Amino acid sequence: MALLVQKFGGTSVGDADRIRAVADHVRRCRRRGDSVVLVVSAMGKETDELLRLAGAVSSTHPGREMDMLITAGERKAIALVCMALHDLDIPADSFTGSQAGFLTDTTHRNAKILDVIPERVRETIDAGRVAVVAGAQGVSTDRNVTFLGRGGSDTTAVALAKALGADSCELYTDVSGVFTTDPRMVDSARKVQRISFDEMLEMTAVGCPKPAMRSVEVAQRFGVPLHVRSAFTWEPGTLVTKEDQIMEQAIVSAITPDTSEAKVTVSGVPDRPGVAAQVFRALADEAANVDMIVQNTSADGVTDISFTVPREDLANALVVCKAMGSEVGAVAVTADESIARVSVIGAGMKSNPGVAATMFETLAAAEINIQMISTSPIRISCVIAERDIERAVQVLHDAYELSTSTH
Ligand code: ADP
Ligand code: ASP
Ligand code: MG
Hints:
The protein is an alpha/beta fold and 407 residues long. It has a domain at 3-174: 3-Layer(aba) Sandwich (Carbamate kinase). Helices cover 35% and strands 26% of the residues. The protein has eleven helices and 20 strands. Bound molecules: adenosine-5'-diphosphate (ADP), aspartic acid and magnesium ion. Adenosine-5'-diphosphate is lined by residues 9-12, 173-175, 178-179, 181-184, 208-210, 254.
């Protein structure tokens, strides 16, 4: 008998029919003899709707009340899922994050899990009942309700699987697994059978929404394999696992698009020690999450520095850069929101030359101009114009033959 932690995303519990389908799936698992613990997200777009409401009544968004509000979405969902289970004569109990033993720090809207002590969940399992746990929430060291952040339910599931010593952590969603690229963008995107934690982390770091990045970090740290799969077809999905459990690494596993960032350029800054330090310290102090950074070679003792930031941090970053720019004697600060980043990810590129050359040749042949480049041992990213992103993803997906390769 296996103990399974199964997490259901917003779409997977989006309406009454979907909730009944989840209950039915639990019945099938229990008939096979497995024990099931569920982690549930807020229904459909409920979290977005709660955030919209908060924006309509408040401009200050006090953290404590925001978390009280947002976590209500998951609380509603767990009660409904439990009721659907009861209807099938399956004994089940719902638990808020606090009741399930999730202790967090005090950072509202983005709390970090400090410990999970799932005593009540364990008692429920031992009594042969289904525990239904609210995702993305906990109680802080100062006894307030906290929200773990967007996508936090994936992290709840992984942390709970680890704390319970579960046999499997399954993340059910509206696609049948992790794909070679966003299936909404490329029709021939293909489901990957297995992918390493390192590759999955790189993908999520550059824009892949599934699974949430923090959940992959926690899964890797504690060696919890993830199974990303469909709550619609119930077919086997993608296993995210340690690299040594993958027989042969694909050279390129995925192409990831990201249109969530903007580019800032500080031009005409003096080329002397300490200038970059000053600019980026000031940005860090404002919590602007800077990513790709490029500094041009200097001409006549001045240079340009460009970097990317999440679009929601852009306004802040511009204020900081303009203030800093005048302090260090920069000529201008400009921003471009119409950019996108396209990334090629694959653990096999460590031992195979030519992946970068193919990427640049492919973009060149499609007449797509590269504005910035950054790399890690298993990733190459290019910043391009946003209008070119779909074409870039399509031609790169073809160039690396991702719709046909098998891995
Ligand atoms: P959930 O709400 O179930 O937690 P999300 O809605 O956050 O999940 O993420 C699932 C979505 O991610 C899918 O509908 C899919 O369109 C999108 N997606 C983008 N890139 C990929 C990819 N490489 N593999 C799988 N899904 C992807
Ligand atoms: N409902 C929250 C969100 O949409 C948390 C989660 O489900 O992961 O981000
Ligand atoms: Mg979703």
